[in-house]
Amino acid sequence: MDFRFSEDQLSIQSIAREFAQKRIAPIAAAFDRSGEFPLETIREMGQLGLMGIEVAPEYGGAGMDTVAYALAMMEIAEADAAHSTIMSVNNSLFCNGILSYGSEEQKQKYVRAIASGEAIGAYALTEPQSGSDASNMHTRAARNANGDWVINGKKSWITSGPVAKYIVLFAITTPGIGAKGVSAFIIDTGRPGFHAGKTEPKLGIRASATCEIELNEYVCPAADLLGKEGKGFGIAMGVLDAGRIGIASQAVGIARAAYEASLVYVRERKAFGHAIGSFQMIQAKIADMKCRLDAATLLTLRAAFAKTEAARTGGRFSTEASIAKLYASETAMFVAHQAVQIHGGMGYSKEMPLERYFRDAKITEIYEGTSEIQRLVIARNESGVR
């Protein structure tokens, strides 16, 4: 792995950092309190190329690699996890899915609007009765007399669901054969039969709108089948591998924010006549936080590098993505927890951002596959035993 970043990678990192600190950080707490979707700044991110970093210029994107994406995600997440969640879904789950499996017509029609920030994309796999068991879905799609698909069912915990224009959605097209009967579709939320439910009142990433969606006799044109019929489950899992790198990057950003805030606090806060950073118990926490943060960063960049190489060679990056996601998400929780401890009562107060980092960190251990699922993926890939 080459640890030297290219000029393009450093450029997008710098753009993301400047935007995050100047435009996102000052408004993050207010949007967390209100739960309002930050549409204005999301559109600005699209104009900067941050909503389609790995999308080729001919489809409206920045045309960069996964390492550039990871570096930019870390910067956005350090300022606000909610913005980075929206960015992650657009980049990793929506655009990546269509670029990897879609037709040329689908890329031109759907990717350009999302990559440019003109519209918001979403990804619908989870259902009320099936989270980690993604193959146990109830949403059904059947062909009508015209050859189009009529879809009925519910999906839950859909990030950006209330505001999305287009959604990559998975449904059973051949019942009774499990995962082999799943197909993928591109849903236009403006069509009849689509309904977005109430926005979920979440613990963290509150400005990232999440809801349940329902499709009732929704007619999806045959041209909007993504990939081949019956190949949807493989598409879902392949897209989630990419998504895990995005969430690992997000987790690193959250952890970095909590760590940097702690460094400032231990230098300024005094107890018993000394800066608390001089106390060995505090020093041990700082050392542990730094070690885990650096390890999570490197594992995430390794996964990003592996995905870039896989695109060139046709190889896999599933294990690297799961390792990065598992370690970075648990590091985010560890670092945020230690940061709250270091800040004491102030860490528990909404007057400081530590409690927000703590709340935001938790979701990174859950979505795009829980920590338990990541351990299964890693172990099965390593042992070959299913």
From TrEMBL:
Looking at the record, the residues that make up the Acyl-CoA dehydrogenase/oxidase N-terminal domain are: 6-118
**GO terms for molecular function, please?**
acyl-CoA dehydrogenase activity; flavin adenine dinucleotide binding
Q: What is the lineage of its organism?
A: Bacteria, Pseudomonadati, Pseudomonadota, Gammaproteobacteria, Lysobacterales
Q: Which cofactor does it need?
A: FAD
Q: Which catalytic reaction applies to this protein? A: 3-sulfinopropanoyl-CoA + H2O = propanoyl-CoA + sulfite + H(+)
Q: Which domain of life is it from?
A: Bacteria
Q: Where's the Acyl-CoA dehydrogenase/oxidase C-terminal domain? A: 230-381
State the species of origin.
Answer: Dokdonella koreensis DS-123
Q: Which Pfam families match?
A: Acyl-CoA_dh_1, Acyl-CoA_dh_M, Acyl-CoA_dh_N
Q: Domain Acyl-CoA oxidase/dehydrogenase middle, which positions?
A: 122-216
Question: What name does the UniProt record give this protein?
Answer: 3-sulfinopropanoyl-CoA desulfinase
In the record, the note on similarity to other proteins reads:
Belongs to the acyl-CoA dehydrogenase family.
| UniProt keyword annotations, A-Z | FAD, Flavoprotein, Oxidoreductase
Concerning Gene3D superfamilies, the annotation shows: Acyl-CoA dehydrogenase/oxidase, N-terminal domain, Butyryl-CoA Dehydrogenase, subunit A, domain 2, Butyryl-CoA Dehydrogenase, subunit A, domain 3
InterPro entries for the chain? Acyl-CoA_DH_CS (IPR006089), Acyl-CoA_Oxase/DH_mid-dom (IPR006091), Acyl-CoA_Oxase/DH_mid-dom_sf (IPR046373), AcylCo_DH-like_C (IPR036250), AcylCo_DH/oxidase_C (IPR009075), AcylCoA_DH/ox_N (IPR013786), AcylCoA_DH/ox_N_sf (IPR037069), AcylCoA_DH/oxidase_NM_dom_sf (IPR009100)
